[in-house]
Amino acid sequence: MNAPFDALMARIRACRLCESRLPLGCRPVLQASPRARLLIVSQAPGRRVHETGIPFDDPSGERLCGWLGIDRAVFHDAARVAIVPMGFCFPGTGRNGDLPPRPECAPTWHPRLLPRLERLRLTLAIGQYAQAGLLGEQRGRTLTETVQAWRQHLQRGVLPLPHPSPRNRLWLARNPWFERDLLPVLRARVAGAGGGRAGRLSRRHAATPGLASPGRCRSRTSRPSGPLPAPGCGIRPRSDYHARPPHPAAAMSTPPSFLDDNQIERLSSLLEQRAVPFKGLNLEALDGFLSALVVAPVPAPPDQWQPQVWGGQPPRWNNEDEALQVQNLLMGHWNMCAARARFEGEDLPDHLAPLMWLPEDPEQAEEALDESELDVGRDWAMGFFTAVMLHEAEWDTWLDEHAWIEEIFDLLDQLASGERIDPENPEAPPARVSYRERLDICMELPAMLADLNHHRVDALTPRVPIRRDAEPGRNDDCPCGSGKKYKKCCGLN
Q1: Which pTM was predicted?
Q2: Domain range for residue 315?
Q3: Domain ends where: 188, 210, 232?
Q4: What is the number of structural domains in the chain?
Q5: How far apart are CA 60 and CA 124, in angstroms?
Q6: What is the mean pLDDT of residues 306-323?
């Protein structure tokens, strides 16, 4: 028993410093012990945690335990894990979620409490407020920049993390490197943070799966595929596209306008052999990746995006002819994705349809296949978000300015994560996206890309003032009264 430390904790829990500014009154929520080896500095308790008085007693806590690779019993053992937020009490709710932590807590209590945690081996800074408090001027301009520099900060014993809230699911989907590169290091550090039997943290969740990146896409060689039951569906299934040996193809002098089946098989085989083992993209992820690039807010030159395809470093090819052939296959796929985004008709030609895995019999797939095999569109969406990260700031500007683009990203997030958040109750456990819902989203991908391409062209076109009657937007209701969107009705003409 440590009487001075216990007295300090009692004073903190009795604090009423900002009671008049808190909508639900004071209830400081934290846990700490001088024996703790891991310190979690978070933001502030939410409403549910305020009600229970248990740190992270909500869906955010469930995800955080998965990130750390520990169970709830270890997580809530103060002798192992200290949880000290920037604000100890629930600050209230604003228009866009919980308010920031109250500014009185950290300056008042952190200097008295944190120096007493003398056995710490690792500190986690969760969210932008904790990162501002612990890293100061060393943090990046954005949370993403700060977390991307995690190796640099870890050298000083602080590992920055995004908040595990369900609201950040889109951020996780758009940043696959977090699960791929950072989480394994985090779990290893947490597992080694204890000392002896009392301090050793559990490894029970060390292999807890999260969002996988396109670089670790599961092989689909055992999955059959076939056409959808109805023509003009807008998805181009590729059967067994890694299992076959490469087709000997003559070097092309110029990139084709689209890839035929033999060229698709050749490109898929190259990706499986030379990209996927090095955390690069498979064919489906590449299709999503290039689709995002051709509708992006700013152009992306090949020397910027092509290394991403191969996992960071392009392979060394046997000779110049092979290098030219691979380059033309990639640019042919680019041309195909660009033509798809420009297409405005009702029935997308088969040669322009998105490349993604589909079951042999889509109508019977739910009954015939295991749930884990029904992740239609997942790799495609992960490839799309990988490309978004090349111009994150520009995409963020679009997302901030246009709610319909945010809606498209939400649908792609559902494909990537397999989960859907209730906007009316974001703290509730997310619902599973069904196979049928996945198919519905995939059917709309060509139309989504066409809308994004229209917006891109419009944004890049110089504005010349002209006098004309106002015209409805592509996503507005058609003024003819049909009940359809303008782009699907009178806007076709």
Answers
A1: 0.53
A2: 215-451
A3: 210
A4: 2
A5: 15
A6: 90
